[in-house]
Structures are given as C-alpha cells and as structure tokens.
C-alpha cells in the first residue's frame, strides 16, 4: 500500500486497523440498547483500549442515535469517529456529516446491498441503479469528509463480476475504505480469502484503498472468516466487544486481536490494541447491557484461564505454558483471587478497584460501594474479586429514577410471605407492603405497589457469584412492556435483595426506553 490514508497517513503493510462497531451493529441487537451516558462511557473505554475507528451509530435512524454520535464526536478523542448512512439516502449522508461535525477525525460509512437477493427483494432495484447510487452516495460523503467507507451489504453473496464493478465505482467516487460484509454469516474462510484476493487483483485502484472485513457469526465462523480475510489482504477488521451484534453477533474484537498476537507466526500483523484492557472493557459492556458473557467464552469468559482437572493444574504449576497459550495478565486477568476482609480500609479498596479496572468511579459511587463492601465483609468469611466486581457493577448501574433502599421480610414455610420495601423514586422515599407466594413474589408485589407499572416479568434467574452458602447471589430479570424488552441485574448476599435490585435496574432501563423515539423502518 503506497498511499496516504486521510485519517492515518502512511500505514505499515502489516498494521491491521481495528474498527469497533459495538455501539452500532452491537447496539442494534435485541436487549443490548444503551443510553447516552452509557454510550459515552463505552466510547471512552474503546478509545483508551486503542481502537482505531469507533462506529458510534446511525444518525438518521433516530434522534437518540443522532445525539449519541454527536456527543461521542464532541467528546471522545484519539479514535476516528464514524457514522453509518445508507448509500441511497441523501438525508442519511447529510445527517451523518452533521452528527460528526465536531469530531477530531471523522468517517462516513455508507452501505447498500449488492447481492441479487437483496437488490431484487429488499431494494427492488436494478443493478445499474445500485451502481449509480454508489457513485452519487460516495461523492456526497466525500464532499463532507476525506475519510469515506463504502460497504457492499451481503457482499459475500454478491456476483463476483458485479462486486468488482461496485467496488470500482466506489473507489472512483472517493471511498478510501472498501468493506465486504458477510452480512448473514454464510461464508466460509475459503470464500472470504478468495473474495479479497480477487478484488485486490481485479479492481483498478485497489492498491489505493484499505479493504475491510465485517463478518457475522451465524455459523460460528466470524473470527475464522476475519482471519482468512486478513490473509486475503483485508487490513481493517470490523468487530465488537464480546462479539455482540445482529442475531448471532459479529466477530469478537478480543478473540481476533489475541489470535493475531498469539499466532503471530501465522498472522504477522499488529494492532494498536492495549490488550491488558480487554477484560475491563468486556466487563464494562456486560455491566452496561446486563448480558454476562458465557463462562467458556474465549479470552474474557470466567473459565477462560481456569484449570479444573488435577493433571492440568499440576502442569500449570510446573510451567504455565503447558496449558496456557497466552498469559491471563496479557488480557487483564489478575492471578490472586482471595482479596480483602473487614479490616481493609478505603485506600486498599480503591487500589483493589483500580486493579480490577474500575478507575473512574466518582466519590459518591466509591463511598456507596465501600460501605456495601464493609457490610459484605461483616457477613462473609472471604471476599473474592468476583464479589467486589458484582458489588461495584451493581453500584455503577443506572439508577437514575428509582433506587433500592431497604427490604424487610417475614416468611414461614407453608404461609404467604410479607414484604416491606422502601424505594427512593426521584428523591422521594416510598415504603410499601405486600404479601406474596414466597419472599420474592412478596417483594416484587411490594415493588409494584411502590412504583405501579405494566411491565411483565419475562425472565428471572439467580446464580451464585462464588462458592459457599455465604456467597452473594446475582439475579437477572427481564421485563417486557409494549414490545420493549429490558434486562436488569442485581447482586447481594441476600438473594431476595439481589432480585429486587435486578428488578429496579430493569425498571430504570425501561423508563429510559419509554422516552426514546424508536427508529423509523429503514428500507434501502
Ligand atoms: O452486516 C452488515 O452488512 C452491516 C453493514 C451495514 C456494514 O452491518
Ligand atoms: Zn453487520
């Protein structure tokens, strides 16, 4: 590659650009929506992680999306900020340009479908019309910024000759990055390698742009397809934290980055990712969205570096490389798990939080978390990292409208339970009483009395944070109202209190969602 990229200047041929779409493709998936403050926190964390491009949203889709792209463009420094737009929509491109106006470095990403299936049934357009739109769309975007990306939606199922014509038209109209998504997660690694090799060989001007891979995980091949794309010549990877995204998700950022780093013998490429931050950012996203990663998830799952069998434990003690292909520290895990007790002071607690990645807690949240830690240390023999994480996650959750204050329960087997619940609703303390079929039912009925609502409880699950009967419980609650779905989480040594905290968290999210204008249907 021998050209100056508008945002990155001269790029080394072995450097892979990391384009994170957690806040756009990731946020698009059901249950993963974030409010403005949460998106800003994530954008900040992504910039610190070393992501090259942050796709912040789809400004024309809703007022909320416009606002979040605009705020991220104003405040998040260090990464290129990117906004999505449809190639055919003049309004889309104008909205993207306006939302990005204050960004330090900005990119407009425009896309249109190019596969026969999508052009015929979704767009109802002739291929020649799509080609014309590619020219007008990229020209319009290029008038607003020098950094323009064009995507061939459903590119992996597009006729190769037509794909070459589309890419050529996009390059001629000024696109500087060409993205070929496997939109429906259908491709194999061989397909992706072939597509990128073909485009680089056949399209005039291919050496003047960066090719980009965007793989969905419907067959569980997103990461493998991305690595194959890099082998085929792609030098930008589109991915999300924890692999969140439409349907089965996108390629997981942490997996790709660690595959490139760990198997550098096979993939001699570098990224700008500060890998010891990976776990912290993964947890931040899980906390914000209330979706834990599965325990066996590569890199960031709870079991990713756990060795259960005696033979493995023995091997790791003798030489960690026997069963560990990368060090836990290289992705942010710390080895010591047993931490603190009731005599630990505020400074030690703050240090501990720092080592666990919570370095931006404000004083009020730190005080609340410390006082909950002291309560826990009084009741629990040993306080582990996992306990502290559960407790702090609970503190940083959004409790803008409703806060849990106090719960009193009376329960005798075979009889209805009594609950007395105190909430703080926008500064007003409300206490209510209710009975129920067991303590959780009684507590939820008291919650309904204190804060009447129509949401339906769609999911309720409880898990222990650590081992032992004194372990904290972590509860997940899903609420549904008028087709809107939200998930909440809560943790506490008292299982019923953890359930109430989770319910309150979900209600807070629902209130934010009620205020949000939903995007109008987008068809092009
Ligand atoms: O999966 C896809 O095709 C997309 C495009 C908008 C890039 O997300
Ligand atoms: Zn996608």
TrEMBL record:
The Pyruvate carboxyltransferase domain, residue ranges: 16-279
Pathway annotation: Amino-acid biosynthesis; L-leucine biosynthesis; L-leucine from 3-methyl-2-oxobutanoate: step 1/4
InterPro entries in alphabetical order: 2-IPM_HCS-like, 2-isopropylmalate_synth_dimer, AIPM/Hcit_synth_CS, Aldolase_TIM, LeuA/HCS_post-cat, LeuA_allosteric_dom_sf, LeuA_bact_synth, PYR_CT
Keyword list, A-Z: Acyltransferase, Amino-acid biosynthesis, Branched-chain amino acid biosynthesis, Cytoplasm, Leucine biosynthesis, Manganese, Metal-binding, Transferase
Residues binding Mn(2+): 25, 214, 216, 250
Cofactor(s) in the UniProt record: Mn(2+)
Gene Ontology MF annotations: 2-isopropylmalate synthase activity
Keyword Manganese: yes
Keyword 4Fe-4S: no
The EC number(s) this enzyme carries: 2.3.3.13
Signal peptide start and end residues: none
UniProt-annotated stretches for the region Regulatory domain: 403-524
Subunit structure: Homodimer.
HAMAP family per the UniProt record, alphabetical: LeuA_type1
Record's protein name: 2-isopropylmalate synthase
Species for this entry: Acetobacter thailandicus
């Amino acid at each position: 590659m021998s050209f100056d990229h508008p945002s990155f200047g001269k790029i080394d041929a072995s450097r892979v650009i990391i384009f994170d779409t957690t806040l756009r493709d990731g946020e698009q998936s059901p249950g993963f929506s974030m409010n403005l403050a949460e998106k800003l926190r994530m954008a900040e964390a992504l910039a610190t992680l070393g992501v090259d491009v942050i796709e912040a949203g789809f400004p024309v889709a809703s007022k909320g999306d416009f606002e979040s792209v605009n705020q991220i463009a104003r405040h998040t420094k260090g990464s290129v900020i990117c906004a999505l737009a449809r190639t055919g929509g003049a309004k889309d491109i104008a909205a993207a340009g306006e939302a990005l106006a204050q960004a330090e470095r900005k990119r407009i990403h425009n896309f249109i479908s190019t596969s026969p299936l999508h052009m015929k049934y979704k767009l109802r357009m002739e291929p020649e019309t799509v080609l014309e739109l590619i020219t007008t769309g990229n020209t319009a975007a290029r008038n607003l910024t020098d950094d323009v990306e064009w995507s061939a939606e459903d590119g992996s199922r597009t006729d190769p000759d037509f794909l070459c014509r589309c890419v050529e038209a996009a390059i001629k109209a000024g696109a500087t990055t060409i993205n070929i998504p496997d939109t429906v997660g259908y491709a194999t690694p061989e397909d992706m390698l072939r597509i990128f090799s073909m485009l680089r060989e056949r399209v005039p001007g291919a050496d003047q742009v960066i090719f980009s891979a965007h793989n969905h995980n419907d067959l569980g091949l997103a990461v493998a397809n991305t690595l194959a794309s890099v082998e085929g010549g792609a030098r930008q990877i589109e991915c999300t934290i924890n692999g969140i995204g439409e349907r089965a998700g996108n390629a997981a950022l942490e997996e790709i980055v660690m595959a490139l780093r760990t198997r550098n013998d096979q993939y001699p490429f570098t990224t700008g990712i500060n890998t010891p931050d990976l776990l912290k950012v993964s947890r931040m996203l899980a906390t914000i969205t209330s979706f834990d990663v599965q325990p066996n998830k590569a890199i960031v799952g709870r079991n990713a570096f756990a060795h259960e069998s005696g033979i493995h434990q023995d091997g790791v003690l003798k030489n960690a490389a026997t069963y560990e292909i990368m060090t836990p520290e290289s992705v942010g895990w710390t080895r010591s798990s047993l931490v603190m007790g009731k005599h630990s002071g505020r400074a030690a607690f703050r240090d501990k939080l720092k080592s666990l990645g919570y370095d931006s807690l404000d004083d009020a949240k730190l005080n609340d978390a410390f006082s909950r830690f002291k309560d826990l240390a009084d009741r629990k023999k040993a306080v582990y990292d996992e306990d502290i994480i559960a407790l702090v996650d609970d503190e940083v959750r959004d409790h803008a409208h409703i806060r849990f204050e106090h719960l009193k329960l009376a329960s005798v087997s075979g009889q209805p339970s009594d609950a007395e619940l105190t909430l703080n609703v926008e500064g007003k303390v409300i206490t209510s009483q209710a009975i129920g079929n067991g303590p959780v039912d009684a507590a939820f009925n008291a919650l309904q009395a204190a804060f009447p609502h129509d949401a339906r409880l769609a999911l309720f699950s409880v898990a222990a944070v650590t081992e032992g009967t004194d372990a904290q419980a972590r509860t997940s609650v899903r609420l549904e109202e008028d087709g809107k779905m939200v998930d909440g989480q809560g943790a506490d040594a008292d299982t019923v209190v953890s359930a109430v905290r989770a319910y309150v968290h979900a209600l807070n999210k629902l209130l934010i969602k009620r205020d949000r204008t939903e995007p109008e249907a987008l068809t092009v």
